[in-house]
Design brief:
The protein has 97 residues and is mainly α. 48% of the residues lie in helices and 0% in strands.
């Protein structure tokens, strides 16, 4: 969330003129649900029960942002890693459950 907030602030400052201005904010790398589950388990020292099922109709194979334009036009690059995101999410959830 911190990375996204910084990117949005930079975009608001840069694109003060009317019109459509589009920049993808992301790492440029997609993660599978299983990669995220495994990272969450590893960094938080917990076990998440899951069942692997067949792909659902309409599920896309991959989806991720190309952040090149955000880097070129805003000077923005994601700083947080997948491990950071999983750790921060769990810490937030524990404090607000």
């Amino acid at each position: 969330v911190v990375d996204l907030a910084k990117g949005h602030v930079l975009a608001i400052e840069k694109y003060a003129t009317p019109g459509v201005h589009i920049c993808n904010l992301g790492t440029g790398k997609g993660y599978s649900v299983l990669e995220i589950v495994k990272a969450f388990e590893r960094v938080n020292g917990i076990k998440i029960p899951y069942v692997i099922k067949p792909r659902r109709a309409g599920d896309i194979a991959t989806c991720y942002a190309d952040p090149t334009r955000a880097k070129e036009q805003l000077g923005w690059v994601a700083e947080k890693t997948l491990d950071d995101m999983c750790r921060d999410t769990w810490n937030f959830a524990k404090k607000h459950m």
